[in-house]
Write a structure and sequence with these properties.
The complex is a heterodimer. By secondary structure, chain A is α+β, with helices and mostly antiparallel strands. Chain A is built from five helices and six strands, in the order ααβααβββββα. Chain A has two domains: 36 residues, no CATH class; 98 residues, Alpha-D-Glucose-1,6-Bisphosphate, Chain A, domain 4. Chain B is mainly β. Chain B has a single domain, classed as Beta Barrel (Porin). Helix content of chain B is 5%, strand content 44%. In chain B, the strands form four sheets. Chain B has a 16-stranded antiparallel barrel with strand order 1-2-3-6-7-8-9-11-12-15-16-17-18-21-22-23. Chain B has a three-stranded mixed sheet with strand order 10-13-14, with no helix packed on it. In chain B, strands 4-5 form a two-stranded antiparallel sheet. The interface between A and B is large, with 50 and 79 residues.
């Protein structure tokens, strides 16, 4: 064994012990320097080092990117319709949203200009295609009688107007992302 | 001793065992195989010394009228032999390079991540190599750059095993600011100049090489992480390297061989150098101080060297061990990064072993860069003192049992270029990138590099003693990584 190696072996052992004793933070591969030309270039241009073509296995980074962009592969309904529905109904408090079933249910909402009247909406996004019949909105209305809320019919035009709003917003989102 | 070993083992297994058993809540992931790569093409305008294509070391200046420079094999020269009407090399060139990477990544349910990287580059051979009368290896021949496997545990850190840079060979260094242009003074300008009077081969961390090694790097505690790597020799790849049954310098494991004194640095072409038992140790701290990102590294690189053999079969120690200390620090704030790095120890300007009696080297690197939107600009500067004169003229004593080292004295005939003296190398690089798209850059860069050694002829193909060599390179082009 060379003289150089002598102090290093105990050091290795010490490091391993230290590693075992206390919980440190895992250092990611991207936190180490590299002499790999591809990786150097990727890091320098701010591109993800997990770019490239996945030839085997599931491209998780792409999944994550798409999920972040609202077009997750995990979604079973059309992402544009889904986002558009959320956007359109966002003025009301949300009670539940299930991206897998495609159901959005809002809570009761009383518009400030119409006190004594409240609305609730349920929206269904149907299927993965961006189609005009891919969304259905049902608006419920109640009016206040004394201290009680009583069901009242909402105008049938309200439902289709809401659907039109959603479709218009979906078209907008689609055209915004067309360049990507 | 045995008791101590057993005791140590018990402690280790108590600590390590408990940690291994502790399950990590983590989703298992099937491995992915990813194909990536890079391409770059630069135009370069070069103005350098050592431009004469006629060689005094060939057969051209000695009165002979036949023969080309020695590495071209037989042929008829068409250059006048009188050393007056020399041909110069041109000033323009386009340099291209490409590589393909295969990257494997996977994760186990206990949090263990694993993978491998195989990197194929088309720049493995520096120049065309003549292998025989009618065959040669072109300089776009694809060679393996890095290839290694890694296993990383959230608690125990990471092990890399294979042909990869060491912890001070680029993995954990700080203070090298070269994230602009092609890397400034450590960048691609070297692709355009002739070695070595043109100033090629600056000692950047990656220059230490990807010799086959094992690397261990710890997790991070309170900002600190540590690493250590070991390589048994300077070589890479499969097989022992010996071309036949004889033990020669080609063999990875040869610890003494005839002519070892010529391989303090890597020989051009084959992976052959005298470096043996290379250890690298690094300690790094990274943190945020008042909004400023700080990283600092101190490290050590040590290695022995193969011994030379005299004609009488005597092993002779002709090299110093490598003993290199390095400290670097860098700071980042609001797009600005500045850094400095200082290296001192027994090494030469190719990160090789110095011969006994040589002076130690020292090198200072400073740099800065600024990123704003898609634009990065930066500059860096390197200055260093190295052993200059070569002692390739080591001669045997009369009994053939030992080598007589070269002399430090200023030689009477300075034209022989064999004096040993201090060489100063300094360079300055400035460059800019415009990010056209993620992974794709337009680049422009200028680098000046200078080598000085008093009394040594750094341009032997010119008349007289040229104590100075320099290069000016302006390059511009495109780089794409995917």
């Amino acid at each position: 064994m060379t003289q150089i190696a002598r102090p290093i072996l105990p050091l290795c052992l010490g490091l391993a012990l230290l590693a075992g004793c206390s919980g440190g933070r895992q250092v990611g591969n991207e936190e180490y320097g590299t002499d790999n030309r591809r990786e150097l270039a990727l890091r320098q241009t701010g591109a993800a080092t997990d770019s490239g073509l996945v030839v085997f296995g599931v491209d998780r980074s792409r999944q994550a990117r798409e999920a972040a962009a609202g077009a997750g592969a995990g979604m079973t309904v059309n992402a544009f319709l889904w986002r558009a529905t959320l956007d359109t109904l966002s003025f009301m408090p949300l009670a539940s949203a299930d991206p897998f079933g495609g159901v959005i249910i809002t809570d009761w909402y009383s518009p400030p200009q119409a006190e004594g009247e409240r609305f609730k909406a349920t929206a269904y996004v149907i299927g993965r295609q961006l189609r005009s019949d891919g969304v259905r909105v049902q608006v419920f209305r109640q009016v206040q009688r004394g201290n009680q809320w009583v069901d009242a019919p909402a105008s049938t035009a309200t439902n289709s107007e809401m659907e039109d709003r959603v479709l218009a917003r979906a078209r907008e989102l689609r055209s915004q992302s067309a360049g990507r | 001793m045995r008791k101590i070993l057993l005791g140590t083992t018990a402690v280790v297994s108590a600590v390590v065992g408990a940690a291994v058993m502790a399950p990590q809540a983590s989703a298992q992931e099937a491995p992915t195989v990813r194909l990536g790569g890079f391409f770059r093409a630069y135009y370069g305008y070069v103005n350098q010394t050592s431009q004469q294509s006629q060689s005094t070391t060939g057969q051209l200046n000695n009165g002979s009228s036949s023969g080309l420079p020695t590495n071209v094999g037989s042929g008829t020269q068409n250059v006048p032999p009188d050393g007056v009407n020399n041909a110069r090399i041109g000033k323009n060139d386009i340099s291209t390079d490409a590589g393909i990477d295969v990257i494997v990544n996977g994760k186990l349910a206990n949090g263990l991540t694993y993978g491998a990287q195989i990197s194929l580059n088309s720049s493995g051979i520096e120049g065309r190599q003549v292998l025989g009368g009618r065959s040669s290896a072109g300089k776009t021949t694809v060679q393996v750059d890095e290839m290694y496997a890694f296993i990383a545990h959230p608690r125990f850190g990471q092990v890399r095993f294979g042909d990869e840079d060491g912890v001070m060979g680029g993995l954990m260094n700080s203070g090298w600011v070269q994230g602009f242009g092609t890397g400034g003074v450590h960048g691609s300008w070297e692709s355009f100049v002739t070695r070595q009077a043109g100033g090629r081969t600056t000692t950047a961390p990656g220059g230490l090489g990807d010799n086959s090694k094992i690397i261990y790097m710890t997790p991070q505690w309170a900002g600190f992480d540590f690493g250590v790597s070991y390589a048994p020799n300077a070589n890479i790849g499969e097989d022992v390297g010996c071309p036949n049954n004889a033990n020669s310098g080609y063999c990875d494991r040869a610890y003494a061989f005839t002519g070892a004194r010529n391989f303090g640095i890597y020989a051009a072409g084959p992976e052959q150098a005298a470096r043996r038992n290379e250890w690298q140790v690094a300690a790094r701290w990274r943190g945020n101080v008042g909004g400023v990102g700080i990283a600092g590294t101190v490290g050590y690189i040590g290695a022995g060297a193969a011994r030379d053999m005299t004609t009488m079969g005597q092993q002779a120690r002709v090299f110093n061990n490598m003993n290199i200390w390095q400290a670097g620090v860098q700071a980042s704030y609001a797009g600005f990064t500045v850094g400095a790095n200082y290296t001192y120890g027994d090494y030469n300007f190719f990160w090789g072993n110095t011969l006994r009696g040589d002076r130690p080297a020292e090198q200072l690197v400073v740099g800065g860069q600024y990123v704003v939107g898609p634009v990065t600009v930066g500059a860096n500067f390197v200055t260093g003192l190295f052993e200059g004169g070569t002692r390739g003229t080591l001669t045997e004593n009369s009994t053939g049992t030992a080598f007589i080292p070269g002399t430090n004295a200023f030689p009477a005939n300075v034209n022989t270029s064999t004096n040993a003296a201090t060489m100063r190398r300094w360079g300055l690089g400035a460059g800019a990138n415009y990010r056209l798209a993620p992974g794709m850059d337009l680049i422009a860069e200028y680098v000046y590099y200078s080598v000085r050694e008093q009394g040594r002829d750094l341009d032997p193909n010119r008349q007289g003693i040229q104590s100075r060599a320099f290069s000016n390179v302006f390059l511009t082009g495109v780089r794409l990584a995917f």
